[in-house]
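Minimal example, chain plus flavin-adenine dinucleotide.
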Amino acid sequence: MGRIHVLDEGYVELVEGWGSDESIIEAARMSTGKGFNGWGTEEKPGDEKLLAFLYNNKHATPFEMGGVVIEVKAPIFVFREWHRHRTQSYNEMSARYIPLLDENYVPSLERVMVGANTATSNKQAQGNGKPLTAEDAAQWVYELQALYDQAQIVYQLGINLGVPKELARLPVPVARYSRMRACANLRNWLAFLTLRQAPAAQWEIREYANAVGEIIADRFPRTWELFTKEKQVVSSK
Ligand SMILES: Cc1cc2nc3c(=O)[nH]c(=O)nc-3n(C[C@H](O)[C@H](O)[C@H](O)COP(=O)(O)OP(=O)(O)OC[C@H]3O[C@@H](n4cnc5c(N)ncnc54)[C@H](O)[C@@H]3O)c2cc1C
């Protein structure tokens, strides 16, 4: 599976994966040693019955037998949210060692307008209650870009003068793109997606979560089906 582009400069990419829907079944059958017996049909179901039983009854440990490592390029503010998921493993590029590229997330006008002007019960996603005009939104994005440019001038000046990179980076905004690898098992990824694909999550990390979802769906299609079915049931309640 190739690189999935996210936001204006970011991406999510599969580095490697392990396990499968079949290995979840094999792990669950440790007591009997019967292994994976094969998927069935709608008329004559096979091991999809056991997979659904495990999933729906929260017998979660077999879902720890598979997982993926991904590479992510995202703004630092997205990583701030992402790294709260303590049970994933991370390695992030270090701006102490290499200079950061001059790449900052610039939200589209549509994103700014929709975020500000859409009625939502999510307080964190609301504006100040007054309509935001297209002109004001454009002015704000213009000022934002000017600030990014100024921040880069100060950053680059520091690098050129010989200020240590770990200090030269101080003006870099949280919109600056960084890169990391994140590793987790399938159970863990589904917990991440439950929280970060939800409407309450910030739109930017939701875009990343949707890309991770594509990777998970590709590698674990039957578990993915159970996960999405469960989400539909929860959202219709
Ligand atoms: C919409 C949204 C809004 C948020 N707003 C805020 C906010 O305003 N401020 C803020 O600080 N955070 C906020 N968060 C972050 C949130 O509080 C969690 O830190 C984050 O979602 C990670 O979830 P987690 O702890 O379940 O994940 P993980 O850290 O990956 O943990 C997975 C599971 O392991 C167990 N676990 C891990 N560590 C511990 C521990 N130390 N003790 C007990 N059990 C543990 C828990 O069962 C946990 O669910 C927000 C998250 C979302 C999705």
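Residues 197 and 209 are 6 Å apart (CA to CA). The pocket of flavin-adenine dinucleotide is lined by residues 84-87, 191, 195, 200-201 (CB under 6 Å).
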